[in-house]
Amino acid sequence: MAKNNFNANDYLEIYRVAHNNAADLLKEAELLFDHKCFARAYALAFTALEEISKSQFAADVFTGLCTGEEFERFYKDHKRKIQRATLVYRDANSYNLKWVGPDIDDFERINPKEPNFNKRLNALYSGIDVENQRILIPEEQISEKDAEEMIHVVQVALYEIMLVTEYYGNQIGTKGFEK
Question: Would residue 81 count as lying in a domain?
Fold first, then answer.
């Protein structure tokens, strides 16, 4: 493995790029959702959650909470990125009301399930269920509700990051959430 020569400013740039990419992926997931492409919307929203996790870890390296070597081990581990985003999933269940209108008190509850990496794979790839002798099609594996829940998790994550860093003025990364 090559030696990591990134400095603190490089990790700040990784934070910025990954965060902005997560926001772009969310916008694209929302567009796909609006066009009833629920499997792909789920996959993009899930990927946005991974990017948020990556951005927060890079911020933790920038602020000295973690090391570059830890980031390097974490960087390519998809399951670990999602495990690190568990706090976000819990927050999404706290902000679980969605206005559906037209009246001011027309809300529905969204109780997102915990992000599941295999479900992301099912959203992208066809598969084979040998046990039940059937072909798995992404559009049949991911429901509208699944996509809506994953999009909600990412929306809450980005909102929380904005709230902690821009509104409350705390530092970037997970250390800012501990204040």
Answer: yes
State how far the Cα of 40 lies from the Cα of 55, in Å rounded to an integer: 22
What's the number of domains the chain is made of? 1
- Give just the sign of the alpha carbon dihedral 142, 146, 152, 157: negative
Domain that holds residue 29: 8-114+144-178
Q: What CA–CA distance (Å, rounded) separates 174 from 164?
A: 10
- Residue 95: Cβ within 10 Å count: 14
> To 5 degrees, how large is the angle CA 117–CA 142–CA 35?
120
Q: What are 44's two structure tokens?
A: 């993009």
Does residue 51 lie within any of the structural domains?
yes
Decide if pLDDT at 179 tops 70. no
pTM over 0.70: yes
Strands 134-136 and 127-129: antiparallel
